[in-house]
């Protein structure tokens, strides 16, 4: 029997490519989503770079091309009964070739969160949506696993933003502390810079509690901003491409700069641009989750990896984008604008990120070639770009 993997948030930027990646490699895959991201994008009217078929349609297209099945559940995981149905056999699939229950999953990948820092700070209502969605889904998950399947490995997407930008080296999740002659190991201090990032800190605490109380197996991946949209599997058919945002609220900085360069919109460097983060190609997110699945955490272990492949500043990123864009004749302008966020613009940043490479991940880097490929994709869809969504100024 092949391994069953459940992907919570399977319609999202990372969820759908992850589903195809595992399906291609022989796993039994079920995706669950309530379209939170798409509804939020419609609600605040931010255009995506190209239209993306529904989850059911994409599962059908995938099946037509590969003969493989990705089972689809449309449901809201903040409802504990929806979460529990995925484990107790009462699940209802909205699309499946074989609608019988696939059995308890060996692995659950939890992406089912509101992922945008600006969205979480638009106003009190969006703060409320972010907190209730993210924390309730995580809590429902740990209880479902506790009650039905303590051997299931939970892989949770956290964020490097949980650590903030401390003035000391960032370890992979844990820190040995010596205090008044005694030693202990603790979660590395967390001090997030947005409400969204704060929900991830709280998720980590919830899972750490569940690990201590019930010996669950959890891997928490502290991911940096991801870029790109092309994976091996999406090359099969353009309609399988993942959703791609370039607006201020849901677009992350690399994807935004790529689209801005193509649109002839001056690159929006916030403030001094010394903000340094760890980044990774979407292809590496898939590898990281796959390698984590193949080498699960132990019972009673909260294993934490820093999921980044390289670090650079916003200024560095603007430079690469301009250099490559100019070679392609785009004539890219870079413009520092007043930072709508409250964050350090020049700071120390030295995270460790060896754990995932140690279990077999082979990093891709943001080379000029990779930048050029991304610019070419954006050029292909240039007609869809809406300049009015690029900057709105959501303030912290
Ligand atoms: N930035 C600019 N100009 C822009 C957009 C962003 O200078 O037009 C700056 C931001 O001020 C920030 C940095 O670029 O200093 C990264 O911003 P981002 O919007 O790419 O990323 P962020 O809001 O931190 O969140 C994203 C994802 C989130 C994930 C996080 C990883 O949306 O889900 O958790 O990246 S991390 O940044 O490591 O916390």
Mean pLDDT reading: 97
The count of domains is: 1
**Alpha-beta content class:** alpha/beta
Question: What fraction strand?
Answer: 15-25%
Question: What is the CA-CA span between the terminal residues?
Answer: 49 Å
CATH T-level fold name? Rossmann fold
Bound molecules: sulfoquinovose-uridine-C1,5'-diphosphate
Strand order of the largest sheet: 3-2-1-4-5-8-12
Shape: globular
How many β-strands, per DSSP? Answer: 14
Named at the architecture level, the CATH assignment is 3-Layer(aba) Sandwich
Q: Helix and strand string, N-terminal first?
A: EHEHHEHEHHEEEHEEHEEHEEHEHH
Summary, kept brief:
The chain has a single domain (4-388), classed as Rossmann fold (3-Layer(aba) Sandwich), CATH 3.40.50.
Question: What does it look like?
Answer:
- 36% of the residues lie in helices and 18% in strands.
- It has 396 residues and is of the alpha/beta class.
- The chain has a single domain, classed as Rossmann fold (3-Layer(aba) Sandwich).
- The strands form 4 sheets. It has a 7-stranded parallel sheet, sandwiched between helices.
- Helix 1 links the parallel strand 1 and strand 2.
- Helix 6 runs parallel beside helix 7 and helix 8 packs across helix 12.
- The model has no long low-confidence stretch (mean pLDDT 97).
- The site of sulfoquinovose-uridine-C1,5'-diphosphate has 21 residues, from helix 8 and strand 10.
């Amino acid at each position: 029997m092949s391994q069953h993997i459940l992907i919570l948030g399977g319609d999202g930027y990372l969820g759908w490519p992850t589903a195809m990646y595992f399906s291609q490699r022989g796993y039994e895959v079920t995706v669950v989503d309530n379209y939170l991201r798409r509804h939020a994008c419609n609600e605040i009217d931010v255009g995506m770079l190209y239209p993306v078929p529904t989850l059911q349609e994409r599962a059908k297209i995938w099946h037509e091309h590969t003969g493989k099945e990705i089972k689809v559940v449309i449901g809201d995981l903040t409802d504990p009964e929806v979460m529990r149905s995925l484990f107790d056999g009462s699940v209802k699939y909205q699309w499946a070739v074989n609608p019988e229950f696939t059995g308890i999953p060996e692995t659950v990948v939890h992406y089912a969160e509101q992922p945008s820092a600006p969205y979480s700070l638009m106003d009190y209502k969006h703060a409320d949506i972010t907190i209730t969605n993210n924390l309730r889904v995580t809590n429902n998950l740990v209880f479902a696993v506790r009650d039905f399947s303590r051997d299931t490995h939970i892989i949770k997407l956290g964020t490097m933003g949980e650590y903030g930008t401390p003035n000391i080296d960032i370890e992979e999740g844990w820190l040995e502390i010596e205090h008044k002659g005694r030693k202990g190991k603790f979660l590395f201090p967390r001090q997030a810079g947005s409400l969204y990032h704060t929900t991830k800190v709280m998720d980590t605490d919830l899972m750490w509690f569940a690990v201590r109380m019930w010996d669950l197996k959890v891997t928490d991946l502290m991911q940096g901003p991801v870029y790109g949209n092309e994976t091996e599997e999406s090359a099969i058919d353009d309609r399988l491409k993942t959703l791609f945002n370039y607006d201020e609220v849901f677009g992350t900085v690399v994807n935004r700069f790529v689209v801005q360069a193509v649109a002839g919109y001056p690159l929006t460097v916030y403030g001094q641009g010394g903000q340094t983060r760890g980044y990774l190609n979407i292809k590496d997110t898939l590898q990281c989750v796959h390698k984590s699945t193949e080498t699960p955490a132990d019972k009673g272990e909260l294993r934490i990896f820093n999921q980044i492949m390289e670090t650079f500043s916003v200024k560095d990123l603007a430079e690469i984008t301009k250099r490559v864009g100019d070679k392609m004749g785009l004539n890219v302008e870079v413009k520092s604008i007043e930072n709508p966020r409250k964050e350090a613009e020049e700071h120390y940043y030295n995270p460790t990120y060896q754990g995932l490479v140690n279990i077999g991940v082979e990093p891709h880097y943001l080379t000029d070639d990779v930048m050029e490929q991304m610019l070419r994709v954006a050029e292909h869809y240039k007609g869809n770009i809406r300049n009015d969504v690029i900057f709105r100024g959501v303030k912290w």
